[in-house]
Amino acid sequence: MAGRRQNPSARSSPGSQTSLRKRNQQRVVEALVKVGASTQADLARRTGLSTATISNIVSYMAKNGLVSLTPTTSSGRRAVSVQLLTHNGTVAAGIGFGRRHLRVVLVYPDYTIAAEENIVLPQKYDPREGFDLAKEMLTRLLEQTGTSWEALSGVGVGISGSIDRRDQMPVIGTVWAEWAFVDVVVELEDRLGVPVVLDNDANLGSVAETIWGLHGGATNLVYLKVGSGIGAGLILNGQPFNGATGITGEVGHVQVVPDGQACRCGNRGCLEAEASTTAMLDRLSTVTPIKTTEDLVKAVLAGDVAALRVIEDAARLIGRVVGDLASILSPEVIVLGGPLASLGDIILEPVGRAFARHVLPLVRDSTALVASTLDDRGEALGAAALVFHQAAVRVI
Predict the structure, then answer these.
(1) Where does the HTH marR-type domain start and stop, copy by copy (predicted)?
(2) Where does 91-206+378-394 sit in CATH, by number?
(3) CA–CA dist 280, 293 (Å, integer)
(4) pLDDT interval class at 393 (50, 70, 90)
């Protein structure tokens, strides 16, 4: 394998100073995006951070061209107005590797989307071929926007399956076979020559929903991606929740049918084995010509009885697991993402019925269940946002 393996001890643990700095800078950026130019005192009040912490973060961001500082007055006293520099030439790239698609986006520090491109890939493609294609697409987008490689802050990458944050490697049993043992960070850094950060698609989808989704104000949000795999991204108290190792939200591997279908994780009856789009297509393969997820969506919208029944059965299992999540976390909103989100109420209603049967009335009534409006863009958008979040690693 090309490149060098990074020492896991060099990466930040969830409770480290590095991790804390990342979260703090993320809070400052989000405050500036929401309310515009603010004094450091205002930022301290809005974020709950100390004035000394705000001063350090603002100094770093100014040094790196992320914010401008302008003298002003506040309550009759001299102060400094901090404003996020939006289109200052600095961009982050997000790359989303789907089962059969590849999307690359460029995003400015204020989360304005500069450019994006999406292509369809063959099933079971070689990840390294995907890396080469991603570099070609990123090069085109930089040229289209007149952006130099030097202005690229970094690249965020999303793949299906959990990532062990201790060494940034895909977790075997949660990723498709082609991605097992592939060091995505090293492979892409060798190709692109810029820092690369990695996370799974559900986690990135949850981040994207808080920025570009309809429920961006939610501080407790669950993003459930239902596709060929099933996973959940968690936003708790306004921050992505990654646990001790990064392996969180693996609801696809919660058993829902005792002695059910064999799952790629090695167990039986997992939600993914029973209710993923792959499982749905397998059930339909003997009675209909439906072969792809796109065909499934079209058939459901056309009222195909068999397709509707398969959706109903899967939704019942999904709603049960979502209910368990809500009972534990009590989120404000649960966002259903993935290729079935375009079905809207057709899938939300049966999920909602099962959800309501498995939670307390108060949780049911205080939790919104909605479909994502980001289509398949959430993963790549969240990956780009992750670059700006991770930038605080370099704060002094």
Answers:
(1) 23-78
(2) 3.30.420.40
(3) 9
(4) very low
